[in-house]
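Data availability excerpt. The first of two example chains:
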Amino acid sequence: MCHGGCGAVVELTDGVPTDIHGDPDNPTSEGYFCIKGKASLDLLRSPDRLTTPLMRTGPRGSGTFEPVSWEAALDRIAGELAATIGRHGPESVVLGQGTDRNYQEWVFRLANAIGTPNVVGPAHVCFYPRVMASIMTYGAFTFCDYDGDPEVVLLWGSNKPSTHSDGVIGVKLLGAVERGSRVITVDPRRTQTAARSSLHLAIQPGTDCALALGMIKTVIDEGWYDHDFVAAHTSGFDELAAHVKAYDIERVARITGLTPELIHEATRSYALAARACIEAGTGLSQNENSFDAHRAIAILAAICGNIDAPGGDVIWEPMPIEGRRAFPRSDLLPEEQAKKRIGGDKHKILSMSGWVAPGDLHEAIVTGAPYPITSMLIFGSNMLASHENTGLVREAMSKLDLIVVCDLFMTPTARYADVVLPTSSWLERDQIVEFNSYIAARQKIATVDGCRSDEEIILQLAERLGLGEHFFPSLEAALDAKLAGIDLTWEQFTKIGYIRNEKRYHKYRDGGFRTRSGRVNLMNHGLRAMGYKAFPVFRRPPETDQALPYVMTSAHPRQFYNTEFHQLPTTSRSQSTARVTVHPDTAEREGLTDGEEVDLFTRAGARGVRMTVKISDSVAPNVVMADAGWWYPGESSVDASLRSSVNLLTDNDRSDVHMGSATMRGVAVGIRRLGPGRG
């Protein structure tokens, strides 16, 4: 459903789920349960669920299918995959998925077993810019230590109480605040979190990297850095100090739209706090400064001595199970195949993480270069609504010989499929959930006839493709294998429920950091050797002009998760259309009224994206905030379904050079009122 890490208790009456609520024993959610979790039983029972495999009988995108048996569907998929692998090589097959779920490691295991290096997803605009920036700086990924009672929490592009992700959710932040933590929020919007913060830096979208570099310069100039930590555990400090001289506070203020005084105060509060952590969100990951913005923030945390310290940014230690690192079996992918990864020569840091950027993939499908890509297996991803540059995505999907979509519902993406497989929800699966501080047993409590889990589908496809030796005789055998490192079986683990990982601080004192030098890379020679800059560099976002006078940022309404939950009355009844939030001055200038429908556009005369106006001073006069991930289930055409998708306004022209992150926030747009007879 999501990867928030919230614990759930399901009440059963005669074996039938009748109620669901938060689990007070969960290590992170502590009993909290959001509207999406509360809608889980509606998801389970939805009359719109897919319950039988479908094969396309009409044109692509028409939504014309006929029901078939599971055996017929799987046999066709395996037969066509084997044929294309024989003709074009395993790299001609692409596996796609949505945001990180527990079957992600299964998707990668299947890809590696097949021999394809091409796995596509939203990693480039989601979690991985943070992950890879942290790894390239510290050699590991870090999490904000809310339980360590930070004196200051710097929330950067993260609205934590509304976007509970990755096992570190809003309730942890609120608990820290109740115990005395002060919050500094960097966000273009005055969110619920920003309104309650000690300081709110209402930054111009796409300028976060400049702010982070300016804060680094201020810390160095004022002598606020941790001298002992910098001397003992970092490399390249003098060169860093020289590099950031170009980011004086007055220049940074002009770039970001903030005052020098506010930048100085925020920097001082963070740098001089005895304990401080930074929670950076996806708000930073969706423009061409993505990787360098996260890297600059990682450097800021390091020079202030807040790495792996109580209340700081703690290095993640995975549990000793066959989890996200071992289970995908990267050893199965030959080195010569890994070198064929699409975009590997262009977006090298993303490629290092095993992912392909959607823009690179779709361009390769359309052009046929560097080799033919003929087939795509999609697990839990509504690509037509979630990937940038929707026009290119549609063109690419129209050229593929085989598209398989595994999903719970019919989506615009599923309408383009040759075969649609109905999958199970999280309540219908046994899974081991792995987060930064614990693992949990997610236990199956219901069955929907006709649906199978993604793991089951992968097992059955692997067997048909002759790859069974790389998998398991059953799902329970796979779960047992994952737990072997802690001497438990799945059955034993279900009786325990949760196992917490013991938190250790200052791990670098025993052997250094996991970098080549054993120190924090303030100056990164490895990046320079790859053809990148050794230090983060700010790149200006697209300029506004008279035709496109506004800067668009975007976010998902809290009742939805990416493109999910639009089918459920529980989550959709409070908002039936996508909204664009505009400042009162903007509304007056454009002659807009609250609730009016408008089109956002990026090129004069281009097709617009339909939005309903919401007037609020929560954004600056030159900024508009559009709802992201929007689509309308039940429409008769893909065009109608996607009429409010902001990705119609995005392209791949200005993507991050390291990660391929598309500019989805910080887009120059115009607002067009609808004339008589439109709407």
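And the second chain:
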Amino acid sequence: MRKYSSTIKSRSFLFIELKNLCKCYLDGVDYSELKLKIINENLFQTESENRRRELAPTVLKRLQALDSFLVNKIVSRDTGTGKVIAVFAIEKTDRLFHDFVTEVIADKFSVLDTYLTDRDFEHFFESKGQQSEIVRAWKPYTLYKLKQVFIRILYEAGFLKSNSSNRELNRPLIDPEVRNYLLKIDSLSIGRCLA
């Protein structure tokens, strides 16, 4: 089982970066060449080489979490569909975010509770703190930043109508073929958010 980590604080959504990497991969650039392309050709258009080196492993890991069907669809389908696929990739590479989507967002959708509250985050982090010494050791600022990043990812992907204090949940409209595929391969987490 993967350990909990707070690295998502500095990595966030990275949808455009993931989509660009998927395009390169579909164009025949293999994984070993992709990292060089990110750093040497500034594929992500970042200001510093340090930032490119920081983002490269994260986005490559997200790409590797996708099968060929989803890599193709993130490039060939509408932006909304691509963003949901990006959330799926984040879920597959970040245990804490996966657990949040499964235990909070998917559960809220299943009981028709349409608002994501600060208390939802507090309960989630308290629960994770009881299960993990790593989470229990995090400072309040780390939890605050994680909350902000989770909200931003969910908002940018269309799972929230607003990222302000009035955070109403939304089921994004995506390509039906991709929706059905995600329901089939991940029925407990993102699939429940789309059902």
